[in-house]
Amino acid sequence: MKIGIFDSGLGGLIIARSIRKMMPEYDYVYLGDTKRVPYGNRSHEAVFEFTKQGVEYLFKKENCAIVIIACNTASARALRRIQQEYLVQNFPERKVLGVLVPTAEECAKYKRVGIIGTAGTITSNTFVDEIEKLNTKTKIFQNPAPMLVPLAEEGEKVRAVPFLNEYLKPFKAKKIEALALGCTHYPFFKKEIRKILPKNIKIISQDEIVPKKLKDYFVRHPEISKQFSKGKTTKILLTDLTKNIEKLSKKWFGKDAKPELIKL
Ligand code: DGL
Questions:
Q1: 64 is annotated as an active-site residue
Q2: Whose CA is nearest to atom 7 of ligand 1?
Q3: pTM value?
Q4: Domain total in the chain
């Protein structure tokens, strides 16, 4: 069986690439809902419905044993319900994991932490809830950074700098020790963020932490990981495909990305 990775669009390819790099032996299927991206400004219900359709496709059509929801907005707004309702009723023996809990585990190591994400992720307060479950002493400061997704998709690093300055400014006065990048697209701006933030502030980037935590999870859950096939393949499935989407897929995943069009 394969490992599925779901995202609202292409940003999750950055994390998919780092997961594959750490565990190249497995078979992966990436599903990006490029037709309906962005999820960041949609209602709870819409994000749940779209995410459920993506997970269902990966289970039914691609025979995935596990699906990793790389999208923070979907992890924040749909994951719990998918695990507690959809999975229990339809695929009790399979797993769906998100990216928020591993990020929260990293944040909980600090006394003062900042988080940026889409409006949907920040207003859901899910990061705060997850961090507080682990460490009630961590002080959490959040700021939505809505313009970064479209800028990343246009490859606009320089034009993003004034927005990054604006979004990161409130954190400086809060004396944070670490900043979590709570969105699939933000690792694209890691260098620019590094330049803006004081050197002593650690950047928590999901492409650096999630693969390792996933590997540990597979070791702790052999009942899941023993089902994985080891053919070293990666399929990229998208719900909309244009020349630009193809170009961006290669930029974020690598030259071997050959996206295929599917219908959810
Ligand atoms: N994948 C989304 C996230 O990580 C960003 C793009 C979107 O808004 O759909 O929150």
A1: no
A2: 38
A3: 0.95
A4: 2
